[in-house]
Every structure is written in C-alpha cells, then in structure tokens.
Amino acid sequence: MNETRQSQVIVITSGKGGVGKTTSSSCIATGLAKEGYRTVVVDFDIGLRNLDLHMGCERRVVYDFINVVNGDVKLHQALIKDKRVSNLSILPASQTRDKDALSKEGVNNVLSQLREKFDFIICDSPAGIEKGAFLAMYHADQAIVVTNPEISSVRDSDRILGLLSTKTQKAEIGEQVKEHLLITRYNADRAEIGEMLSVKDIAAILSIPLIGVIPESEAVLTASNIGNPVINFPQTDAGQAYSDVIERLLGKKTKLRFVSPKQQIWEKFLNVFKRDKSQQEEIL
Ligand SMILES: Nc1ncnc2c1ncn2[C@@H]1O[C@H](COP(=O)(O)OP(=O)(O)OP(=O)(O)O)[C@@H](O)[C@H]1O
Ligand SMILES: [Mg+2]
Q1: In testing the pocket of ligand 1, which one of 11, 22, 214, 240 has its CB within 8 Å of the most ligand atoms?
Q2: What's the pTM?
Q3: Would you call 113 helix, strand, or coil by DSSP?
Q4: Which of 78, 110, 102 is nearest to 91 (CA)?
Q5: Alpha carbons 40 and 80: distance in angstroms, whole number
Q6: Which one-letter DSSP state was computed for residue 82?
Q7: Helix, strand, or coil here: 60?
Q8: Cβ distance 21 to 146 under 8 Å?
Q9: What is the tens place of the pLDDT at every residue in 11-51?
Q10: Which of 111, 190, 194, 244 is spaced 20 to 30 A from 6 at the CA atom?
Q11: Ligand 1 midpoint to CA 280 (Å)
C-alpha cells in the first residue's frame, strides 16, 4: 500500500450468530496479507476466542487483546505473527474474561496503535447487538455484513446496517461506513428451487453492494479443523470465492462464481444428448 494512504479498519459483522464471520475474517485477512498488505486480524469475540483456532495459532497465545487494553503488556507482546503468510498478525481474544472487559477508551487506544503499524485491520465481531459488536464496528471505515441465505439472517443484517449508520465514529462525524454484503453458505441448487433465498433476493432486500458469494462447502470445515484458512487452498470452491472477494475489495471487477445451479449444467448436457438422439431417430 502507498505510504501516504491511510490504514483501513474493516469490521466483519452480522446480526445472527454462526453465519461465517470468523471464517471470513481469517480468509480476508490472509488474502490481503498475501497481496502484500500489512494486515492484522483482531478477535473481538471475548470469552469465545475462536479466531486463533481458525488461524491455527491457539498454542502460541500468551497474551491477548484484554491484556493490551488493560495495559498489562505492550501491543507487540500480544501480536502473533502468522507462520504461513508474512505481513499477517493476529491479536487474539481472551478466553477467560467476559465481553465487558473491553472498554471504549481501551479499544480506541489499541486501534490507534494498530493504525500506525498496519494497512488493514480486520475486526472479527461477535454476533448480536451487544457491547462487543458495537466496539468492533465503532472504528470501522468499511463493514462486511455476513449473511446466510435465510430470512432470519437477512433480517438481522438489516438491523446491523441501521447500527452502522448511527453508532459508529464515522456516523458521529456525518460520514458513512462503506458497506459490503457477503453472502456465505450459498447453495445455488437450493436457491433455484426456492429452498433458500437467492443472491438476487438478498441483494434486493438489503440493497448494499455485493462483495461476494461463498458457496456452502465441506472444504470450510476441513480447513477450520486443521487451523488453516480455506483461502490457502486455491483448488477449493470456497477458497476461490474468498480470493474473488479480495480482488473486489481491492477494486477489481471480478465476475461472480458459484451462483448458478450445477443442475443446469447437467440439464443442458442432457438436452443436447436428447436433441442428438431425436435427430438420429429422424435420420433413421
Ligand atoms: N461456506 C461455508 N460452507 C460450509 N460451512 C461453513 C461455511 N462458512 C462457515 N461455515 C461453518 O459455519 C460455522 C460457523 O462459522 P463461523 O464460526 O465462521 O461463524 P461466526 O459468524 O463467526 O459464528 P459466531 O457468531 O458464533 O462468532 C462453522 O462450523 C463453519 O465451519
Ligand atoms: Mg465468530
């Protein structure tokens, strides 16, 4: 990143829990670092502490975000350098404290130190609309609203959009957080037959720009079980979809993938086969 450009704080948020925020935070941070940007991913989910598992560094956690907020240790003592990707650091959450251990002033202080060191600061938010989620979004320049193709998730995302436009530092000074919609766990076949909301439906309800669609994929669980973000597996569908998200975040107009039903391809194939067969019958 150009030295004169400001760092960007990106919050990965959602109303509903378990939609793929931590998966997305680990992949987006890894993807940006692979592009050469100095990147840190911060776990705001105090008490649960999942991000370090997704990043495969759980055994290396000595100090955490709360220790830095409380002034027990310096920031550099709590930052963990990723072993796979240079330029990437993780600031883990505490597992023993509860979410009230984060104070607004403490977070302000840590975020301003991170802005000096990094180009991108990715904040993995807890679900819901409680203190931890507010603190995670407060400093955001950009927000990625993670949504599953189901009505409850979409409705909760809509509530989060309301908060992003009122409860952030940007909102306080009359500016807007740049919002992006990320649809995860998408199954194009099921959307086609109306068992899930389609990309078009979700985008129409939330009416914010779409940054990507991540397919429902077994590769995500396999990757998180071995503590290696799925974006590090370029042969997988979800890995490719997250790489596309990085390209779009960096301003490229990358075409959407994994949004068309697989059945359609088979049906087309079968139609060609049927047509060939009837032509043969006509000739005979
Ligand atoms: N694209 C996907 N395909 C299949 N499974 C997925 C996908 N994305 C996430 N998951 C699974 O969904 C579950 C929740 O994911 P994750 O922990 O990233 O969500 P979260 O939003 O951070 O949850 P929480 O609100 O509890 O913090 C995990 O088991 C994860 O493996
Ligand atoms: Mg999470």
Answers
A1: 22
A2: 0.92
A3: helix
A4: 78
A5: 9
A6: -
A7: helix
A8: yes
A9: 999 999 999 999 999 999 999 999 999 999 999 998 888 99
A10: 244
A11: 50
